[in-house]
Amino acid sequence: MRLLLAMQFGNRASKVLSMKFGYFNQLQMPKPWRENGEVLLYKEAMEQAVHAESVGFDCYWQTEHHFYPEIGHSSSPELFLAALAQRTTTIRLGLAVVVLPCNHPYRVVEYVSTLDHLSDGRVEFGTGRGASPYHIEAFGVTSDESKEIWDESLDVICSMFLNDPFPGWQGKWYPDLLERHLVPKPVQKPHPPLWVAGSQPATYAEAARKGLGILGFNGTEPDEIEPSIRAYREVQAECTPVGGYANHQVATFIIGNINADYTVGRDLACAAARWYAGDNDSELQRVRFGAHTGEYYESQQATGQRSGVRPAILNRSNEDLIRDGLVIGGDVDSVCRGVERWAKLGVDQLLIMIQAGDTTHDEVMRALDLFGSKVLPEFQ
């Protein structure tokens, strides 16, 4: 395989590119729903996560989503990861992400630290401000407020990790937090690696400046993300860590699948991407990007505030999606080419979502097998 890739992409053998692999899950449940669908969903997700460890994945990442009937039945990822911690020993457990404006800092520090103990120090602590107004408004937070709240929450949380006792806090959003001992303290000292979700160059640069790893949810071609990655790397030298140390890593989310038959692997990956991007019923689109209708999404598109994820996926053929790098799919050679493209941009970890749309549990498990046996070894 190494020789084949070197022949196709120049002399790769002179410098083997490395990549960490994360298995990313939102616990999707598209309609029509199976009988006992949620029970099966959780059982299958646990089997997938355990299997991801057995085939060599570095990290399992799970989202915090609320009120999304199809794309996210994962409202309490810390509970799922706590159960997973008892079934695994090596795979790292990623919170992707804790929505800080919707969670009180005291509780976040307590359950992140508890999870770090249950997993023997395997937690990756991702943070974010919320996926959409529909999500955060139910918690009494507006989009205009969410950035400020995330910023202050992160400062508070880091103070809680770094100080014993926590000295208290008087800020705009948390004006009267009292001095308290936060227990337990995490296994990883002084705290697990810190990350933030982002998609814009300014967010990448801010993450680097604060010493945060970036979880990139861009949904665009690799070459379009390159300026964001470059901005992140350039700002690293100016870092003043918000926590106890810098976690300068770049991770990128992508939908993928793999099969011995190129066409089958390509079409499975692209069907999942199309469903996720909007080729589905209207309910998903009403709640995913908007408060109550699709108008929010359209207004964001019109003002250039979103990167155009929906048309970028829906307006391309399956072959174009693979060629342009918006999806990783096909056979082993095709997937390795896709991974190598991201590695050359300086991405440290790919967050691969296989369980999307109508992809079945058996298809996910077979894909994990092939990723583990044929793809991961090429980038270690």
Secondary-structure content class: alpha/beta
Helix content: 40-55%
Question: How far is it from the N-terminal to the C-terminal residue, by CA?
Answer: 13 Å
Q: Numbering strands along the chain, what is their spatial order in the largest sheet?
A: 1-2-3-4-5-6-7-9
General shape: globular
Please give the domain count.
1
What is the oligomer described by this structure? single chain
For the biggest sheet, the summary is: 8 strands, parallel, barrel
Query: Architecture in CATH?
Result: Alpha-Beta Barrel
CATH H-level homologous superfamily name: Luciferase-like domain
Task: State the low-pLDDT regions, or none.
Answer: 1-15, 289-301
Global Rg = 20 Å
Query: CATH topology, anyone?
Result: TIM Barrel
Order of helices and strands: HEHEHEHEHHEHEHEHHHHHEHEH
The pLDDT mean sits at 90
Number of helices: 15
What is the CATH level 1 assignment? Answer: Alpha Beta
Summary keywords:
single chain, TIM Barrel, alpha/beta, 380 residues
Description:
The protein has 380 residues and is α/β, with parallel strands linked by helices. The chain has a single domain (14-379), classed as TIM Barrel (Alpha-Beta Barrel), CATH 3.20.20.30. 44% of the residues lie in helices and 12% in strands. The longest helix has 20 residues, at 143-162.
